[in-house]
Design a protein that fits this description.
Shape of chain B: globular
CATH topology of the largest domain in chain A: Naphthalene 1,2-dioxygenase Alpha Subunit, Chain A, domain 1
Structural class of chain A: alpha+beta
CATH architecture of the largest domain in chain A: Alpha-Beta Complex
Number of helices of chain B: 3
Number of strands of chain A: 20
Number of domains of chain B: 1
Number of domains of chain A: 2
Structural class of chain B: alpha+beta
Number of helices of chain A: 15
Largest sheet of chain A: 8 strands, antiparallel
Oligomer: heterodimer
Radius of gyration of chain A: 23 Å
Strand content of chain B: 35-45%
Radius of gyration of chain B: 15 Å
CATH superfamily of the largest domain in chain A: Naphthalene 1,2-dioxygenase Alpha Subunit, Chain A, domain 1
Chain lengths: 438, 155
């Protein structure tokens, strides 16, 4: 990046506010694709999506088309989804099995599932042309680095840069907790994700994951109405609450509840809500689950694992997981003002099916394009995307519970309504946009 | 019930949705009936994988009450919808029950946005002393696996 651009990016981020260009400018978006996404570790997929050799999925990091595939030695590879010959995407379905090799549908160049060039039809046409010295002869290009963390596959596009462990550090404890909740220590993806299109910048969605001052306002129409209907219902004493009350009603919890739940931030833009308790704390017990956990871990460790009720954990730059209900939301940027949200659910291997049914229920109630909760969130993002065009006021405020001299290089636990996690994300955003981890 | 009553019922139900007669519409439902909108084509399991909707009477009531709420921001201004029905195919018909499948085009609009969904709607109907009632409804969207913005009303 040139010095002039450096200065421009630097000027967009102040300690207590950010310039609206970070959400609205197509130029800033292009710089994110070029500098931010390639230099950090981004979620690609889960290895249970490719259980057998030759299984693949299509994916993306920023605007880069990728595929993830299981090679003949059972290792996962992440490759650019582009034929090195003419650029044709090798596969376009969201998931499939390619057998022992990929074959480009245009001119039948073929590649092993680790990307190596296998064969070119009528190869004598390239004899003496110096093909071996070209990029094309190297086959399908791999990403700079990839890491499979307990089934969750991340990649860094850039060949050099921050390491996986250094980038995530202690933040991996949320993923650990989600996986440990399986009596077999293993998750598997269930079905296909909800795919929800938002006409807003991807960062608005990420920030909303730790915005604890909006649920009781934006979601009053669903959560507040649910509570009212339940209270007004003519029902015999002891009638069990319907599932909607267990899932949706906690969104109506008072400010005090969210203040006390706490927020933790980690270096490099990661953080989570629900340090002490969360809206997931009071879900009813499912018969047989605790017993299965005790069998594996012993009672003390089982209680410790299930005692963590972290709400939303943000892995910078663009995913959120919910450990207690085994969900992952991927906020996929499509343009400065367009974001695709994929909401995935996981089965806890070795746990009762009712847990899968509960995460599926949460997903459709909260994350679907048909969700009454989602409708009001999307409304807020899209209103913000349009409102930000107002020239009279060009800054977005992120200073709730701001403290002088905040050091994002240190882990911190604070009042659950702080916007420190948003500031933490922009601190990481600026550093990686400017090309480094330092 | 007879064929003509069944076909009239299917048309009347869609008409109520288009006219926003939600409380009358909810009265058409048996208490334990479920509105299911699968996420996947030919989806078999409604609850152990993600669906777009799988709503019992409480959820449907919540949905309707919310549409009328004073602080329902995504419905300020309100959406409108419009169903166009193909001729219902009555798959099963007895004196007290019927299974009917109907192809529909569903249009929903709000502000300057409008979208079209192609639907295959399957009704399980039961005869009651009060008239025909819905025992279950499955709404398959032709492009159910596509990315959507808000779908706010009831296809």
């Amino acid at each position: 990046m040139t010095d002039a651009l450096d200065d421009r990016i630097d000027a967009l981020i102040r300690p207590q506010q950010v310039h609206r260009d970070v959400y609205t400018s197509p130029e800033v978006y292009r710089l994110e694709m070029k500098h931010l996404f390639p230099n950090v570790w981004v979620y690609v997929g889960h290895d249970s999506q490719t259980p057998n050799k030759g299984d693949y999925i299509t994916a993306q990091i920023g605007d880069q088309p990728l595929l993830m595939v299981r090679h003949s030695d059972d290792q996962i590879h992440v490759l650019y989804n582009r034929c090195p010959h003419k650029g044709t995407k090798i596969v376009i379905d969201r998931a499939g099995n390619t057998g022992k090799f990929f074959r480009c549908p245009y001119h039948a160049w073929s590649f092993k599932t680790d990307g190596c060039l296998l064969a070119i039809p009528l190869k004598k046409g390239y004899e003496g042309t110096g093909l071996e010295d070209t990029e094309a002869a190297k086959g399908m290009a791999a990403v700079g680095a990839m890491h499979n963390y307990r089934g969750f596959v991340f990649a860094r596009l850039a060949p050099e840069g921050i390491g996986f462990e250094e980038f995530f550090g202690e933040a991996l404890s949320s993923l650990d907790n989600m996986v440990d909740r399986s009596p077999q220590g293993r998750l598997s993806v269930v079905g296909t994700p909800l795919r929800y299109l938002h006409k807003c910048n991807w960062k608005m969605l990420v920030e909303n994951q730790t915005d604890t001052c909006h649920p009781m306002v934006a979601h009053e129409s669903s959560a507040g109405t649910a509570v009212r209907i339940w209270e007004e219902m003519d029902k015999p004493e002891g009638t069990p609450k319907p599932p909607a009350m267990e899932i949706i009603a906690p969104f109506m919890s008072p400010y005090e509840f969210f203040e006390n739940m706490g927020i933790r931030t980690w270096p490099n833009g990661h953080g989570h809500t629900g340090v002490h308790h969360s809206i997931h704390s009071d879900y009813s017990a499912i018969p047989g689950y605790f017993e299965a956990m005790v069998e594996t871990y012993g009672e003390d460790r089982a209680r410790e694992i299930l005692g963590e009720n972290r709400h939303n954990t943000v892995y910078f730059p663009n995913i959120m997981i919910k450990g207690p209900i085994q969900q992952l939301r991927n906020f996929i940027p499509l343009a400065a003002d367009r974001t695709l949200v994929e909401s995935w659910i996981f089965r806890l291997e070795g746990a009762p099916d009712e847990l899968t049914a509960r995460t599926a229920m949460y997903n459709r109630m909260i994350n679907a394009p048909t969700s009454m909760v989602g409708h009001d969130d999307l409304e807020m993002y899209e209103r913000a995307q349009e409102g930000l065009m107002a020239d009279g006021l060009e800054w977005v405020n992120i200073q709730r519970l701001y403290e002088d001299g905040e050091d994002f290089g240190e882990e911190a636990v604070l009042n659950g309504t702080t916007e420190r996690q948003m500031r933490n994300q922009f601190d990481a955003w600026k550093r990686f946009m400017l090309g480094g981890a330092a | 019930m007879n064929h003509e009553e069944v076909v009239d019922f299917i048309h009347d139900e869609a008409w109520m949705l288009d006219e926003g007669q939600y409380h009358e519409w909810l009265d058409l439902w048996l208490p334990d009936a479920v509105y299911w909108m699968p996420l996947n084509w030919n989806q078999q399991d409604p609850v152990n994988e993600t669906s777009l909707m799988h709503e019992d009477n409480f959820m449907l009531r919540l949905r309707i009450e919310r549409l009328h709420g004073a602080r329902t921001f995504s419905q300020k201004p309100k959406s409108r919808c419009h169903h166009v029905l193909n001729r219902p195919r009555v798959l099963e018909l007895t004196e007290d029950s019927a299974k009917v499948v109907t192809k529909m085009h569903y249009v929903e609009t709000r502000l300057d946005d409008q979208f079209l969904l192609a639907l295959t709607v399957t009704h399980d109907l039961k005869a009651t002393p009060e008239g025909i009632r819905i025992a279950g409804k499955r709404v398959d969207i032709l492009n159910c696996d596509a990315a959507f913005g808000n779908i706010q009303l009831l296809p």
